[in-house]
UniProtKB/TrEMBL annotation:
It is an enzyme of class 2 (transferase). It is found in: Golgi apparatus membrane. Keywords: Glycosyltransferase, Golgi apparatus, Membrane, Signal-anchor, Transferase, Transmembrane, Transmembrane helix. This is Golgi mannosyltransferase complex subunit. The gene is MNN9. InterPro entries: Mannan_Polymerase_Subunit, Nucleotide-diphossugar_trans. One of its GO terms (biological process) is protein N-linked glycosylation. It comes from Saxophila tyrrhenica.
Length: 374
């Protein structure tokens, strides 16, 4: 007959302590969740989490207290994120989806900032990120931006943004050239490679674990519908871009008119593919230049203001003037190649890289945003 094992009182006590410990570990933080009306559901707050629901766990928004000579700074808190709960849907406001708006900024345009502040998406779900070149013009742009931020982010403003990050570029500066010089064919490879590095630095520094969407918005986009974010996200596409035009005054007609501006959103052609096959490994295809006729179908010429603004077209290349990307596309590894990637670079190279990762790009030829006219 086997011996009878009796559970002692101490065994029950230890088991009870263990159960309490595990229950506290998994559920103990739930009472410390601060009150955020639009707090993203994917964030499980720690007792020492940053005061802003969108802050990364390194607490960049809290200035540490001065330490004594023998004091050691406390390590950053552990914050738990449930990445499976990060949603990207056609109803982003209802799902409290966070938006990261990223802008490479070489010059500050007041019209850009005014348009940004007029966006109707809840501002407490929007984080802003800027990267600005070093140098005199970059210093001026930084100063002008900070002056606007101080007003917009003042505690008395109930419509302030969730967070704002400003980076100073530590690689090649984004040269703030005149428009004609900036678009010269001879400078495109160097200029767009520098732009790619700036975009990647900004993206990898600011993309957080609760970010659902990334909106790339150039600093010279001065007019968009106030519902830009909701309109683009409502299509629920991995990569989607509106049509970028420019308003200008026609002296002959004595009237304000519009013209296409961004030629980087296109559908590929057999001619372009043939040109690429004859190129060396370091050569790139560029769009919108008579010296390099690709005969691609450009979305810039598909636009019709009287047609359905929700009409979609498939794209093989995208421009970055106003580009909405699901954050998971970037998390998958799609970035802006500063090198020839299948003979494409920057935003067009990004579309190619996203496609190679299984993500398609789309365009809205009848939905317009407008570029500053120099």
């Amino acid at each position: 007959m086997p011996p009878v094992r009796r559970n002692s009182t101490i065994t029950y006590i230890l088991a009870g302590i263990l159960c309490i410990f595990f229950l506290y570990f998994f559920f103990g933080d739930s009472t410390s969740i601060p009150s955020f009306p639009n707090a993203p559901k994917q964030l499980i707050h720690s007792k020492q989490a940053a005061s802003n629901a969108l802050s990364p766990p390194s607490l960049p928004f809290i200035k540490p207290a001065k330490l004594g000579p023998d004091e050691v700074p406390a390590p950053p808190p552990v914050v738990h994120y449930q990445m499976n709960n990060v949603t990207t849907s056609s109803t982003p406001i209802e799902n409290h989806e966070t938006i990261l708006i990223l802008t490479p900024l070489a010059r500050f345009y007041q019209e850009y900032w005014d348009n940004l502040c007029k966006l109707s998406y809840p501002h407490d779900l929007i984080s802003l990120g800027f990267i600005i070149p070093k140098g005199r013009e970059g210093n001026l742009a930084t100063q002008q931006l900070q002056e606007r931020i101080q007003k917009t982010q003042h505690p008395s403003n109930k419509d302030r943004f969730a967070s704002i990050t400003i980076l100073r570029q530590d690689t090649e500066p984004i040269t703030a050239q005149a428009e004609a010089d900036r678009h010269a064919l001879t400078v495109q490879k160097e200029r767009r490679a520098a732009m790619s590095r700036a975009r990647n630095s900004l993206l990898f520094t600011t993309l957080g674990p609760t970010t659902s969407w990334v909106l790339w918005l150039d600093s010279d986009i001065i007019e968009t519908p106030a519902s830009l974010i909701q309109d683009l996200a409502s299509h629920n596409k991995p990569v989607i871009v509106p049509n970028c035009f420019q308003r200008y005054y026609n002296k002959e007609e004595e009237a304000w008119m519009t013209r296409p501006y961004d030629f980087n959103s296109w559908q590929d052609s057999a001619t372009a593919q043939g040109l690429a096959e004859q190129m060396g490994p370091d050569e790139i295809l560029l769009e919108g230049y008579a010296e390099m006729a690709t005969f691609r179908s450009l979305m810039a010429y598909m636009g019709d203001p009287t047609s359905d603004p929700r009409a979609e077209v498939d794209l093989d290349g995208v421009g970055g003037t106003a580009l909405l990307v699901k954050a998971e596309v970037h998390r998958d590894g799609a970035m802006f190649p500063p090198f020839p990637f299948y003979h494409l670079i920057e935003t067009e190279g990004f579309a190619k890289m996203a496609h190679r990762l299984g993500w398609k790009s789309y365009g809205l030829p009848n939905y317009f945003v407008y570029h500053y006219n120099e």
